[in-house]
Specification:
It is built from 17 helices and 20 strands. The longest helix has 38 residues, at 2-39. By secondary structure, the chain is of the alpha+beta class. Helices cover 39% and strands 22% of the residues. It is globular, with a radius of gyration of 24 Å. It has two domains: 63-303, Endonuclease, Chain A, CATH 3.30.870; 325-414 and 425-537, Endonuclease, Chain A (2-Layer Sandwich). It has an 18-stranded mixed β-sheet, with helices on both faces. A two-stranded parallel ribbon has the order 7-14. The chain has helices at 2-39, 63-74, 87-100, 116-130, 148-155, 175-181, 183-186, 232-245, 265-273, 280-297, 326-337, 352-364, 382-388, 392-397, 449-454, 465-478, 520-532; strands at 79-84, 104-112, 134-144, 160-165, 193-197, 201-205, 220-223, 226-230, 250-252, 302-310, 341-346, 368-374, 401-405, 425-428, 431-435, 439-443, 458-463, 484-489, 499-505, 508-512. 43% of the residues are buried.
């Protein structure tokens, strides 16, 4: 026993020494960043001329508007929706919308990568611009897959304009250094995912533009959901887009002072014609007419009342009399009105003490409350898991049901089309909420401090038992014991070690008192992030 205690003490001491070394390194980097900031000057021109513009507001003059006119007339005040439950359909539906565009395409995304999916959609966007469609793009500066010169060349197209949300001011230096020095400003990111075509139809949900959201990676892809929508919610989304487009926090690409000639036109042309193992271009050409018909015919649309909700481009400062957490308020109202059941399927779940309180209060008044989030083995952001894990016991003790998505969970298979052959690991990325099986949320917001206080978010609150049932069916599948772990408490175990993971392996019941399928390296990362106490930054 004495030897074990000695080893334990030595382990703690080594852990603390490692933490101190890391903190010293961070301080060194901070000082370097400070020196750079003092020595350099910003390259973004804040007085760069910008022209305000508004969303196209005559959808009835377009093919999309005419195609959906009858449905809108039969359902006054309602919008039409179709769930995009698998990544391949989500990608090809976006491509079909772009190819059907006649007047305008407005899109804003947190991530737009220069991978196969991103280059495929960029090719379709440029082709639309070639035929005279106005293309406006608002991209967050945190995760753009294109360098400034390439953005400038894209922006140089006469029918395309690219603007960047909350740009890093000095384009010469690593962003992490600028983030450390100016976190209060640069930590606020645009997490929205809005896509509007001809002011009539589009897509809103959780997917960014990256291979992993569209079944494009061979090793790991995201389980996600978004909605094809048409009607009033898209006019609301277009107005939200305009509020960003015309806000000073969104900078024209020209303000970066980079000549588009620095980006190779040959390289851009290669992107527009390239193929790869992923093959979205070939698959789309094979099924292009089918997906265009789906969009134009309104196949599978469910009509319902709904509202598009988004945070303003610039949120009020912390400590203001009323926080600009529009999405959080909408969920608070829905949660308070729920009488029977609430389900959250969210990739990143860090409830905090207040979240534990409100969720357990709902459970105490008889509401069945289920939460599906990533397991440690499945998550792509270990730091978020370190913020979530300490609240699990309190949530379970308060009557909240917890499920953790497994990396071996099978995602919904595309019907009749597949872009990669073979099985790959899964990670949950959806942001879905269902209240009493009649009200549902599909959007970009997670249940974590970053979504509540830092990022801007967007999504739709939809009143529809039919759509709620469709979403329920997909979530129930993800809650299956072969797809997620059910967490319970062992009453005989000591506090802090009471969680048990239950599920199935090879069709047989299986349980564990430790994090399933997690490597020692991941467990070490969790402990490291807990020591840093960075929950408010997640």
């Amino acid at each position: 026993m004495a030897l074990n205690m000695q080893n334990f003490s030595a382990s703690i001491a080594n852990h603390q020494q490692g933490l101190h070394r890391m903190l010293r390194s961070l301080i060194t980097v901070w000082l370097l960043a400070t020196a750079i900031a003092l020595a350099g000057c910003a390259t973004v021109q804040k007085d760069y001329p910008r022209v305000a513009s508004q969303a196209f507001d005559r959808p009835q003059e377009t093919a999309l508007g005419r195609a959906h006119a009858d449905g809108l007339a039969r359902h006054p005040g309602q919008s039409g929706f179709r769930l995009l439950n698998n990544g391949v359909s989500a990608l090809l539906t976006r491509a079909a919308l772009i190819d059907l565009a006649e007047r305008s395409i407005d899109l804003q995304y947190y991530i737009f990568d220069a991978d196969d999916a991103g280059l495929f959609l960029l090719d379709r966007l440029l082709a639309a611009a070639d035929r005279g469609v106005r293309v406006r793009m608002v991209l967050d500066d945190q995760n753009i897959g294109f360098d400034d010169a390439t953005l400038a060349r894209i922006d140089a197209h006469p029918n395309v304009e690219v603007r960047i949300f909350n740009p890093y001011q000095d384009r010469r230096w690593p962003r992490i250094l600028q983030m450390m020095r100016h976190h209060d400003q640069l930590g606020r990111r645009m997490h929205n995912k809005i896509f509007v075509v001809d002011g009539q139809a589009g897509v809103i949900g959780g997917r960014n533009i990256n291979n992993r959201y569209f079944e494009g990676e061979g090793n790991s892809n995201f389980r996600d959901a978004d909605m094809l929508a048409t009607g009033p919610v898209m006019q609301q989304a277009a107005a939200i887009f305009d509020s960003y487009w015309n806000n000073p926090i969104v900078a024209p690409t020209g303000s970066f002072g980079v000549a588009p000639a620095l980006a190779s036109e040959d390289a851009l042309n290669v992107w527009r014609t390239s193929t790869s193992e992923y093959g979205p271009r070939a698959e789309y050409q094979r099924r292009k007419l089918e997906f265009e018909r789906r969009v134009l015919s309104g196949e599978g649309l469910v009509w319902a009342r709904a509202q598009t909700i988004a945070e303003p481009p610039v949120r009020q400062a912390e400590g203001a009399s009323k926080s600009s957490a529009d999405v959080a308020r909408a969920h608070a109202i829905a949660r308070q009105n729920a009488q029977r059941e609430i389900i959250y399927a969210v990739a990143y779940f860090v409830p905090g003490s207040r979240g534990v309180e409100v969720l357990t209060q709902a459970a105490a008044r008889g509401v069945r409350l289920r939460v599906l989030t990533n397991s440690l083995a499945a998550t792509d952001v270990v730091a978020v898991h370190s913020g979530y894990a300490p609240y699990r016991e309190a949530l379970l003790a308060g009557g909240v049901e917890l499920h953790e998505y497994r990396p071996d969970a099978a995602r919904p298979s595309p019907s009749g089309h597949r872009l990669r052959i073979g099985r790959s690991a899964s990670a949950l990325h959806s942001k879905v909420a269902i209240y009493d099986r009649r009200l549902l949320w599909v959007g970009s917001a997670n249940f974590d401090p970053r979504s509540r206080h830092l990022n801007t978010e967007a999504g739709m609150m939809i009143e529809s038992e039919t759509l709620a049932l469709q979403i329920m069916n997909t979530v129930e599948r993800d809650l299956d014991p072969s797809h997620s772990w059910r967490l319970t408490l062992d009453p005989k175990a000591s506090e802090g070690h009471r969680i048990v993971w239950e599920g199935e392996r090879e069709g047989k019941p299986w349980r564990s008192s430790s994090e399933p399928d997690s490597s020692p390296w991941r467990l070490l990362q969790v402990n490291f992030f807990r020591l840093l106490n960075i929950e408010d930054l997640l």
